[in-house]
Amino acid sequence: MGRQETPLQVRMRAASHRVTWMLGTRFPDAIPLTFVVGYPKSGTVWASQLVADYLQVPYPRFSLLPVGFEAVVHGHQVVRDDYRRCVYTLRDGRDVMCSHYFFLARRIPEGDRPAVPRSLRAHFPGLTNKADVRGNLPRFIEAQARRHHSSPVNWAAHVRSWLTRKDRPGVVMLRYEDLLADAAGALVAAMPRLTGEPADEEQARSSAERFSFARQARRRAGREGANFLRKGASGDWTNHFTREAAEVFDLAFGDALVECGYEPDRSWAGRVGGAGAGR
After folding, report:
1. Residue 210 CB coordination number (10 Å)
2. One domain, residues 85 and 173
């Protein structure tokens, strides 16, 4: 989040979020919202910033009141049939698991046998030291398949909510890896289908520059930091996955990984070495 909220503010924001979603889906003509959704740690905030700037509409990220005006709103809900305009953010699920691990682990103390916060115990079963990422990831991935954090469904079910609706009018996808490689190009490719108008290439370049990872994180993509924007890289899973982690991920999410185009088939897990060597 980037700032500390009081418990009251958290509850107010959650209630506001639910009301905003209800208003935007029931009254899309009066309140023309663009819903940016995706699985946690897939780049939904970044995509929301880019889309809002491209469309030149507000992105009231921390609103404590329901949003009742034209705006971009974001969340980790699945894609639904009642979204008039929807941008789905997609990221390689293996990178998602690693990014989610590091993000949640920030709340766990350093050292051996730390006191894991109660809200995280189900997500870090058997944790003895959070620094042992390779040793912990298989159990973490398995837990995310069963009890997903900050999402109504697990990664596979989430991406399939987009896959089954990707051809619907008003539904577009921004792939995290494409945004890293060429954010302006990704916007130019996606926005005409969302807006029904030709792409504004100048605005796409301006938005991509204004909200580049380097500018927001104040460091180059790929260099790790301790804030919300940890690394901004693709393929980081190859640094942390062991063969066991690959097999656990493949068992839970392998078909969805292939369906999203990140691997041609499920043989990739067998090529991951015991030390975490990648593809």
Report:
1. 12
2. yes
Q: What is the crossing angle of helices 155-163 and 243-259, to 10°?
A: 20
The residue behind tokens 């807006």 is 195
Residues 79 and 11 in one domain: yes
Q: How far apart are CA 188 and CA 198, in angstroms?
A: 9
For the segment 98-156, what is each residue's pLDDT rounded down to a tens digit? 999 999 999 999 999 999 999 999 999 999 999 999 999 999 999 999 988 899 999 99
> What is the extent of the structural domain holding 190?
7-92+156-217
Query: The tokens of 277 are what?
Result: 């060597």
> What phi and psi, each to the nearest 5 degrees, are found at residue 173?
-125, 135
Report which residue type is found at 85: R
Q: Is the domain of 133 the same as that of 26?
A: no
The tokens for 176 are 């995290």
Residues 24 and 87 in one domain: yes
User: Nearest 5°: CA angle at 221, between 102 and 186?
Assistant: 105
Residue 45, SS3 per DSSP: helix
Residue-wise DSSP of 6-40? -HHHHHHHHHHHHHHHHHHHH-TTTS-EEEEEEST
For the four alpha carbons of 98, 104, 107 and 111, in that order, the dihedral sign comes to negative
Residue 1 is assigned to a structural domain of this protein: no
- Kindly report the length of the chain: 279
Helix (H), strand (E) at residue 203: helix 201-210
Q: Is the dihedral of CA 237, 239, 243, 245 positive or negative?
A: negative
Q: Cα angle at 63 between 176 and 2, to 5 degrees?
A: 55
Asked if residue 116 and residue 59 are part of one domain, the reply reads no
Kindly report the pTM of this predicted structure: 0.89
Q: How many domains does the chain have?
A: 2
